[in-house]
Write a structure and sequence with these properties.
single chain; 135 residues; alpha+beta; five-stranded mixed β-sheet; two-stranded antiparallel sheet; 16% helix; globular
């Protein structure tokens, strides 16, 4: 995980990104569950926190539900079907990518959300996520 403290208009924000523990299938592993504990301990009670990245787990796992209890999941009520750029995926060989969501943005509850979206700009095998907030 990378953690940057950024000064925005005289206020410090904790901006974090990560590449989560990978697993060979959709079943959450013990290492991924351990990741949930490490992340939750790290972000608990940190003001003005934004945590984003490829968590390598789906929305209904222990990892994501644990973080949901501490932070706001920006895309939680969104209707997105996948967080993968399907131009880079073989859906015949691996059809799960069409409905796979592993990329998330979480914020502490003291960050006012304005809007969020995913973009199909072709820069990665994942869709770009964007989140706007007010300071």
């Amino acid at each position: 995980m990378l953690h940057c403290e950024a000064d925005i208009h005289g206020t410090t924000y904790n901006i974090m990104t990560l590449q989560g523990v990978w697993a060979p299938n959709e079943k959450e592993t013990e290492n991924q569950k351990k990741m949930a504990g490490i992340l939750s301990s790290y972000v608990t009670n940190k003001p003005r926190t934004i945590l984003s990245g490829d968590f390598n787990v789906n929305p209904y796992t222990h990892t994501i539900t644990t973080l949901d209890g501490i932070l706001d999941n920006v895309f939680k009520s969104d209707s997105r079907k996948t967080s993968f750029n399907l131009k880079h995926k073989d859906l015949i060989k691996s059809p799960g990518y069409a409905e796979g969501i592993v990329d998330f943005i979480f914020t502490s509850r003291d960050i006012p959300h304005i809007c969020h979206y995913t973009s199909d700009v072709d820069v990665s095998d994942h869709l770009a996520q964007t989140f706007y907030f007010s300071t």
